[in-house]
Amino acid sequence: MVYFSRLFLSLSLVAASLAAPAKRTVAQVEADIATISSQVTALDNDINGFPASGLLGALDIHSAAGTLETALDQATSDVTATGPLDEADGTTILNAVEAIEPTIINALTSISTKQADFAAEPISGLSALVLVDLQTLQTDTDGFGNALIANAPADLVATAQTILANINAAFSTAIAAYE
C-alpha cells in the first residue's frame, strides 16, 4: 500500500509538471519575432507578385497567411509564458517588432489595392478568402501585440501601443477593401 501511494504521488507530480506551462525565454521570443519577420516578408513578396502570379499566386498568399497565423500564435504563447520583460529585453524585442512594422504595413497597403484582381481570378470566393485571412491575421496580431504590451516595461508601453495602432489602421484599410 505504501508503495502504491508513493507511486501515485510520483506520477501525480510528473503529470503536474508536464501540465504546467513551460517558462519561455526572451531568446525564444526573439526567435519567434525573427520567424514572424521572415513570414511577413514572404507574404509581402507574394502580395507584390500578384496578380502577375495568377491563381497560384493567390493561393500562395493564402498559404503564407496561414503560416504567419501559426507563427503569431506561437509567439503569443511564448510571450505570455515569458512574463514581464526587463528594460534591456523589452527594448530589444520592441526594436525587433518596430523593424518589421513597415513591411507589415506595406503588405496590407498592397493587398488593399488588389481586391479587383482577386475578384477577377477564375475561382470565385478568393476575395472572401482574403477577407477571412485578413481578419484572422488582425486577431492574431492583436493577441501578439497585447501580450507584448502586457509584459513590456512601463516606459515602452506607449511605443508598443503606437506600433500596434499603426498596424491596426493598415488592417482596417485592407479589411474595408474586401468587405
Automatic annotation (TrEMBL):
Where are the membrane-spanning stretches? none
Q: Which GO terms describe its cellular component?
A: extracellular region
Q: Does the keyword Thylakoid apply?
A: no
Matching entries from Gene3D superfamilies are given as: 1.20.1280.140
What does UniProt give as the signal peptide span?
1-19
UniProt keywords, alphabetically: Signal
Q: Which protein, by its recorded name, is this?
A: Hydrophobic surface binding protein
